[in-house]
């Protein structure tokens, strides 16, 4: 299966080009074929008309031969006499023979002239080839239907038994002065030569195109080829009832100066019908189209071959164009492979083609964003590892201190130092909550106890009194929060809020309430100390404690949760910690270990 765009473009272009060239070649061939066939048909029809006119002289000469003899004064006088003697019969017969021989010698188209009469029945010895008994003619099979329809006319191709040759004849009645039929004149023309007068060549050997000669009445007088050679002739002719003739089928019978294509057994023929000549005869020609249009078809094949060569030559050209067009895409694919291997700084060049320019611009923008995102992700991982290290360090120290302080507590009780033991007990509780079995979240109740222990210890250390109040709903204390997030801000209040006012009473309140659309909780640490310097922000913080708390909240709860620190209007600082609502432990110890936390 083809998958490369360049190959698809070449295949599509070649296919479309081939389709276009094939259409053009076929249309050109059809147009040229129709044009040339029309021109050839018209030229052939013109030649046929000229041939028909040329044949007119032959027909006229043959008919004139019969008519001349029939109306010759000598012939009229001979057949007007009756009761002749043997000698007179001999003289008449000789005169008739001389006459027909003279006429036949003057008309080169005429093969022979025969006279059929019963005038010499009493002198039968006088009959020979030129003068024969009338019965020799009337007993022929074709004579009766012929003579019933015409007085004088043409007899189509028939066999002359005496000569044993195929003849086409003109038969003319001999009438006496009383208009009685006293005999017949039969002028014979060799059938094989009759249509040779059309052209100066042998029609049978050199022209494989049948001709049909129609007389004035549309009857077929002569054909050049047999029906076995051209069965299509049977489709265009039909016998005439009660006559010896055939004629064209009614569809073509009245046509003149006409040409059209006809079909016979999946072969086409050009049918030509001439215009009537001077004798009102017509000539029909049937030409096989394969031979007639062979050169035209050869030319059409040449056109198709030229088109095929053009297609083959266009393939390397199209391939080059396709390669040039898809070159920017190839560069982009290579760049994509580099990105897949982690090389995000790869860039593609701009292109003057608008679509490629947009793709390249978007690709460069994508790689830039991926590079920035990767840097940000690496920075976050670094920060996470650092936070984890700090958390681990903070867990190591409490283990050791917890055990040590527990031992100090029992030693102080042995020496009746209960206040020391109480401090050690508070500190130990802080460490225990700080460990929390390695969990990241503890209940808010434990977080408040952790802060309370720190306050109790600070009350022993600080000279000022500390008024510490907690106002958190009881139901909220069951929520889970990141551990050790309050003690840092309480420590900052004691450390930085009262160092210049030693006699002032410290007031530190911790409050809890819902925030947002009741989808988060807010823990607030308030003091009445000296407050923050003007324009203070998180970057002014010198230690890492605040940053540590903020990073842990962002890491465990999401970046939408954070810490806000600002001054109170009445003096002091407000610390607001916004956290999500966790009614169950969000991070078990196992999950934390699996996620690398």
UniProtKB/TrEMBL annotation:
UniProt membrane topology term: Multi-pass membrane protein
GO cellular component: plasma membrane
SUPFAM superfamilies registered for this protein in UniProt: ATPase domain of HSP90 chaperone/DNA topoisomerase II/histidine kinase (SSF55874), HAMP domain-like (SSF158472)
Residue ranges the record marks as coiled coil: 356-390
The HAMP domain, residue ranges: 323-375
Ranges annotated as spanning the membrane: 299-322
Name of the protein this chain belongs to: HAMP domain-containing protein
């Amino acid at each position: 299966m083809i998958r490369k765009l360049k190959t698809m473009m070449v295949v599509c272009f070649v296919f479309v080009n081939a389709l276009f060239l094939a259409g053009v070649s076929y249309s050109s061939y059809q147009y040229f074929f129709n044009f040339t066939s029309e021109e050839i048909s018209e030229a052939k029809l013109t030649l046929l008309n000229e041939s028909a006119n040329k044949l007119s002289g032959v027909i006229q000469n043959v008919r004139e031969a019969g008519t001349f003899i029939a109306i010759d004064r000598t012939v009229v006088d001979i057949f007007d006499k009756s009761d002749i003697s043997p000698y007179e019969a001999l003289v008449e017969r000789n005169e008739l023979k001389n006459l027909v021989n003279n006429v036949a010698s003057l008309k080169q188209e005429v093969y022979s002239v025969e006279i059929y009469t019963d005038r010499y029945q009493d002198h039968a010895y006088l009959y020979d080839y030129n003068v024969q008994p009338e019965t020799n003619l009337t007993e022929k099979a074709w004579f009766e239907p012929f003579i019933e329809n015409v007085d004088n006319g043409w007899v189509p191709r028939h066999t002359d038994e005496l000569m044993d040759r195929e003849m086409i004849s003109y038969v003319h009645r001999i009438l006496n002065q009383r208009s009685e039929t006293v005999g017949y004149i039969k002028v014979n023309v060799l059938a094989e030569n009759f249509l040779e007068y059309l052209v100066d060549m042998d029609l049978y050997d050199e022209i494989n195109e049948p001709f049909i000669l129609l007389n004035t009445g549309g009857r077929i007088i002569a054909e050049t080829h047999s029906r076995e050679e051209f069965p299509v002739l049977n489709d265009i002719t039909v016998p005439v009832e009660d006559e010896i003739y055939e004629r064209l089928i009614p569809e073509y019978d009245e046509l003149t100066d006409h040409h059209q294509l006809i079909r016979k057994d999946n072969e086409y023929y050009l049918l030509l019908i001439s215009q009537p000549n001077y004798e009102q005869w017509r000539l029909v020609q049937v030409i096989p189209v394969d031979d007639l249009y062979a050169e035209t078809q050869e030319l059409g094949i040449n056109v198709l071959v030229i088109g095929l060569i053009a297609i083959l030559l266009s393939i390397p050209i199209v391939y080059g164009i396709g390669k040039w067009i898809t070159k920017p895409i190839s560069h982009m694919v290579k760049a994509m492979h580099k990105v897949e291997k982690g090389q995000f700084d790869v860039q593609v060049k701009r292109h003057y083609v608008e679509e490629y320019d947009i793709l390249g611009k978007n690709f460069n923008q994508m790689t830039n964003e991926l590079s920035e995102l990767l840097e940000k992700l690496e920075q976050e991982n670094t920060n996470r590892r650092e936070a984890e290290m700090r958390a681990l360090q903070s867990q190591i120290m409490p283990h050791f201190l917890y055990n040590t302080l527990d031992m100090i507590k029992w030693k102080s009780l042995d020496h009746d130092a209960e206040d020391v033991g109480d401090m050690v007990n508070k500190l130990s509780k802080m460490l225990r909550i700080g460990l929390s079995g390695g969990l990241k979240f503890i209940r808010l109740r434990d977080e408040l106890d952790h802060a309370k222990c720190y306050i109790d210890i600070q009350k022993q250390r600080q000279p000022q009194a500390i008024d510490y109040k907690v106002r958190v709903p009881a139901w909220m204390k069951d929520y889970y929060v990141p551990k050790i997030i309050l003690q840092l801000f309480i420590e900052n209040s004691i450390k930085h809020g009262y160092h210049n006012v030693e006699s002032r009473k410290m007031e530190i309140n911790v409050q809890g309430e819902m925030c947002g659309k009741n989808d988060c909780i807010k823990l607030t640490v308030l003091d009445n100390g000296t407050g923050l310097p003007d324009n203070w922000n998180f970057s002014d913080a010198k230690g890492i404690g605040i940053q540590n708390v903020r990073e842990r909240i962002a890491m465990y709860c999401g970046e939408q949760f954070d810490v806000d620190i600002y001054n109170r209007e009445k003096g002091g600082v407000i610390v607001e910690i916004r956290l999500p609502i966790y009614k169950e432990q969000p991070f078990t110890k196992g999950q934390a270990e699996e996620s690398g936390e």
